[in-house]
Amino acid sequence: MEKNAISKGGVSPLIATVLIIGFTVILAVLIINWGTDFFQTVQEDTSKTTETQFVCTNDVKFEVSGAKCVGGDLLVTVKNNADYSIQGFVVRFINFDYGDSERNGVKQVMGETLEAYGTTTLVIDSTDLGDIDTGKVDVFPIVLINNVEYTCSENVESFGDLDSGRRLEGC
Questions:
Q1: Which candidate, 136, 161, 146, 157, places its Cα nearest to that of 89?
Q2: Could you give the strand order of the β-sheet that contains 119-124, starting from the edge strand earlier in sequence?
Q3: Among 5, 68, 85, 126, which is most exposed with the fewest C-beta within 10 angstroms?
Q4: Sign of the four-CA dihedral 164, 165, 170, 171
Q5: φ, ψ for residue 94 (rounded to 5)?
Q6: 64: nearest Cα among 134, 124, 126, 138
Q7: DSSP states of 41-85 as a string?
Q8: Pseudo-torsion of CA 160, 118, 61, 168, nearest 10°?
Q9: Is there a contact between 143 and 103 (Cβ–Cβ < 8 Å)?
Q10: At a CB cut-off of 8 Å and minimum separation 6, what does 165 contact?
């Protein structure tokens, strides 16, 4: 009887060791697989962000050459100074009393594409302006990168000066 008791006791630790090694290998494979997918996704996202920032910083050059109110509408003249087409703009019009941020406004203006070295006039309808006393406008370009529209939020051009005490012409 002692022989059977000794042989039964020796099998259990061997099976336990094999199971622990098997679980460890499976767990390692799962972690490596997850890590590979995770880092590949992070790398792709970083690549897209870098490309967008590069295009917005280096390829998109424009200027706001004028802004004035005519018949209650705000007209903003924009000139493209680069080879890169601009799909549209986000225009932020800032109240003369810039302490009153509730009266500031933002309007996305999409129209015809502003081709390289072209000029256009953006029209902000008086209904979007409300009773705002416009003192300054900030213009952000919207560009198309790999068939996706991006707003270049770091590439802003302004017209007007809130500190000078002058309103935009006609506003």
A1: 157
A2: 62-70, 73-80, 119-124
A3: 5
A4: positive
A5: -110, 130
A6: 138
A7: HHHHHHHHHHHHHHIIIII--EEEEEEEEETTEEEEEEEE-SSS-
A8: 0
A9: no
A10: none
pLDDT tens-digit profile of 23-81?
999 999 999 999 998 999 899 888 888 888 899 989 999 999 888 888 878 888 999 99
For residue 125, give Cα distances in angstroms to 36, 64, 90, 101. 51, 18, 14, 20
163 has a pLDDT exceeding 90: no
pLDDT digits (tens, 9 = 90+) for 85-115: 999 998 887 776 555 555 566 777 777 789 9
pTM for this entry: 0.69
In this structure, the number of other CB atoms found within 10 A of the CB of residue 34 comes to 10
